[in-house]
Request: fold
Amino acid sequence: QVQLVESGGGLVQAGGSLRLSCAASGGTFSSYTMGWFRQAPGKERFFVAAITWNGDRTLYADSVKGRFTISRVNAKNTVYLQMNSLKPEDAAVYYCAASSRSLAVALGRIASYDYWGQGTQVTVSS
Reply:
């Protein structure tokens, strides 16, 4: 069983930056594909970014390409999401997730991710 705890959310002005962190425990972190998803009030949960177990490949939603960067440090059991040039439409609860499937299989499919954190709120003021 993997436990995931997100941190780093907060209030930021449009155009600003935030870095989210997700700390994992209780499993072999380096064996998991890791992903970030987000959910705005009244909307579905959407894929944001994912990274392979060793960080050699990444995948992004079109809406965040060029602005967000996912990375991981396996020695720290942590995955990050660097968010730059934030827009009001980026405001949501951001969730970290772990998948036992490869990135090529898991992609951005919610059902492919086995473990989820509780989320961290990101608010972007215009």
User: Anything to note?
Assistant: The chain has a mean pLDDT of 97. The chain has one helix and eleven strands.
